[in-house]
Amino acid sequence: MKTLKIIPFLVFTILFIFGCETKSKQITHKEDYNKYLTIKDNKSLSFARNEIDFWQKKFDAAPNQISYLSQLSSNYSTLFEYTGNISHLYTSEELLTKSNEAYDYSRVSTIRSLARNYISQHRFKEALVLANKSLAIGEGKKETQKLLFDVQMELGNYPEAIKNLNAIRDMTDFDYLIRLAKWNDHKGDLDTAITFMEKARDIAEKYDNKTLKIWSNSNLGDFYGHAGRIEDSYNSFLQTLAIDPNYSYALKGIAWIVFSKERNTKEANRIIDAIAATHNTPDFYLLKSQIAQFEGNKIEEIKNRNAYFSMMENNNYGAMYNKYNVLIYADDKQTAQKALEIAKMEVNHRPTADSYDLLAWSYLNLGQHKKALQIAQKHVAGKSFEPKVQYHLAMIYKSNNLALKTKPIKEELLSSLYELGPNFDQKVNQL
């Protein structure tokens, strides 16, 4: 009789333990990151401003010393990185252009710096012209091939990209490993991408290189998130902040975990507001708009979207936010035509699968289902593994009554809901 009494108790205990483990585990803790939300000083920013003051005075006293312009430009890039103020990026470009003109475009390091500035502005074709100019000069060829890989990836010239990647092959080189990680991520092999990014981080740790440690840890935060390893993602972002307490990208990553995984909209907004106080860029308004949409707060959703467009109007961001603009405009019948026009420009700027996805999505939202399918099958299917692109593909298939093609994508998307965000729960389930 004793045994019979024990068995139900054991069953209850097992079920209780299992039930506790399957409950969503709290990953983030305010005490981990609160200190990074209230930092008053930014040493990197102060240093850059002092450097600008120092080099500007030197250049004013000796305008023939062209090398001072590169020093100034580099520090303006730092200002852009930490503040998000687009005018600093343009000032950096002006200084580099002046420097290159003075050298008659003969110094590869200065040419490459301008090319990287163009990449930040999403002026990829112009960046490619400069990268090829550097290659023709021949000096510092490996550094130029790294740049060429980056540009070719942005332009969707993948055979050229892999050729440049193979040319710099060195499994002990940080720059090679992070690009190898990017290549594998592009192919959809996320596990391999993570392995190479971890190797890169180990090299950064070995040489105690602050910049490389920040870069590798923050990128691992992204990769882990894509792989559903949310706790690892959170810890990587915290490690990034421990190295640089002012690195807002890592705080934004934590805000996404709080919103998408833990569905804590109030806390996510608190983090975003703290970041935006020092690093103000339009995408923060879009994130706040997403959060408001999830809360069912239409007034806040529209208010933040309008704030995004107001910031776009007051600053010249060029093509930097074209993707966001297409996705917003395509969702509204009144602006769907505008989405199509921007998508066409984006395909012209960078003919990648992701750009063609924007084009196909715009046509779908204009009711041109067959046209959308034609573009998607030719330029998107099997060429991009981004969850949002896959969702668009599934919707295009569904609108063309191709249920057999929709079903496997839906199954894949169900495991990518964290990356897509809470507003996609219902959308994916309805596929």
List its salient traits.
431 residues, mainly alpha, Serine Threonine Protein Phosphatase 5, Tetratricopeptide repeat, 25 helices, 77% helix, 0% strand, globular
Report on this model:
The protein is mainly alpha-helical. Among the domains are: 61-169, Tetratricopeptide repeat domain (Serine Threonine Protein Phosphatase 5, Tetratricopeptide repeat); 170-244, Alpha Horseshoe (Serine Threonine Protein Phosphatase 5, Tetratricopeptide repeat); 324-431, Serine Threonine Protein Phosphatase 5, Tetratricopeptide repeat. The chain contains 25 helices and no strands. It has helices at 2-22, 30-37, 43-61, 67-83, 86-102, 108-120, 124-137, 141-155, 158-167, 174-186, 190-206, 210-226, 230-243, 248-261, 265-276, 282-295, 298-314, 322-330, 336-349, 353-365, 369-379, 387-399, 403-414, 417-420, 425-429.
Give a short summary of the structure:
The protein is mostly helical.
The total of helices stands at 25
Which whole number gives the mean pLDDT? 94
The major pleated sheet works out as: none
Helical content stands at: over 70%
- List how many beta strands DSSP finds: 0
Q: Could you name the CATH topology of one domain?
A: Serine Threonine Protein Phosphatase 5, Tetratricopeptide repeat
CATH superfamily of one domain: Tetratricopeptide repeat domain
Run of helices and strands: HHHHHHHHHHHHHHHHHHHHHHHHH
Q: What's the CATH C level of one domain?
A: Mainly Alpha
Query: Beta-sheet strand percentage?
Result: under 5%
Rg, Å, rounded: 24 Å
Class based on secondary structure composition and strand pairing:
mainly alpha
Protein name: Tetratricopeptide repeat-containing protein
